[in-house]
Amino acid sequence: xxxxxxxxxxxxxxxxxxxxxxxxxxxxxxxxxxxxxxxxxxxxxxxxxxxxxxxxxxxxxxxxxxxxxxxxxxxxxxxxxxxxxxxxxxxxxxxxxxxxxxxxxxxxxxxxxxxxxxxxxxxxxxxxxxxxxxxxxxxxxxxxxxxxxxxxxxxxxxxxxxxxxxxxxxxxxxxxxxxxxxxxxxxxxxxxxxxxxxxxxxxxxxxxxxxxxxxxxxxxxxxxxxxxxxxxxxxxxxxxxxxxxxxxxxxxxxxxxxxxxxxxxxxxxxxxxxxxxxxxxxxxxxxxxxxxxxxxxxxxxxxxxxxxxxxxxxxxxxxxxxxxxxxxxxxxxxxxxxxxxxxxxxxxxxxxxxxxxxxxxxxxxxxxxxxxxxxxxxxxxxxxxxxxxxxxxxxxxxxxxxxxxxxxxxxxxxxxxxxxxxxxxxxxxxxxxxxxxxxxxxxxxxxxxxxxxxxxxxxxxxxxxxxxx
Length: 469
Known about the structure:
By secondary structure, the chain is α/β, with parallel strands linked by helices.
């Protein structure tokens, strides 16, 4: 195996997809091959692995196929992480420099980031998975760019930390580690190693967003099978995340209930009629659904199908817009909204979001950045934005202002010792509540649970000028 090969695995509620890539000579990522299989029922729910054993078997089979097709060994993987209770909050901290006559060093940035992570208190039962810089503060002045090389007495920063419940996080790790490496002529079991995990819409951002998008302000909306995930960027920093418990499968379930048909037939209806807005469907157009178990064929009014799809898409768009408003960045996202996930392939979705968001710039994320030669022709499909982003995250930095090990939660080598490194930490412990905290009653899922978390988050916002509590 070439040491440069990176394998990303997107474990979703509707599909499990693995992609292998390698950096080419001109600095682009070459896609070697891809293997995709539908997620079997009972394996993954709301973005969380619920059956470790059978999901591990599926992943093992997929990676074996990928290893054979691409003629590579697979020992390390990058995996997406999702789930209804992933949450994010901003946190601020400062350190006082002992020698203000020297410029700020990389080690001081690392020290600040590590201290912010240590002083942050996530929701009980959660584990921190990402630490992203938003902006730095030098002697009370906001500095959005890398502060290395500047002078100052105090160095502070606003960081955005993402956490997830520990149990599903451990379940994901155990699922991957129960799969053996794919090495030719390997005679003993060696577990796969996770290089890192990455929250799904942040992987999408790696694929479909430019640095200009993040600077101007943009929302990535990943509409998957069970959940819709939102990530908002502004002034190059991550500002808000949310997971909404409604997505593409909600549309399918609506069609099943409305017309009393099988889920497979409903899924096909969604794919066909999702391309035709209600005003383009004839009043007398009929779709015939094959009967099952000796029952007669069922005739369905095509216009009704299109109306149901459009109305559910409006609900999903309204929830995404509610998150943009809750984040405080309504009217500030010049680059608008970028739609990813399989449901983004529904043709009418762009027009629906345009209506609901009152004319924000809306585009489908079907342009994968930093990809060079590819053995796969359909990698620009928005349903592959996550897995492509996972591969890209193995080669490219998520944020160049801090060492990547800080983002993933590892301790930089410079911070391994107990010395002060020439500066003192001043922990102000100021946390901005950006994402609703996990509701303590585990039964509060679905729309009702989502609404209660919005209300709770609103109560936590005291509304001071900087939003800190």
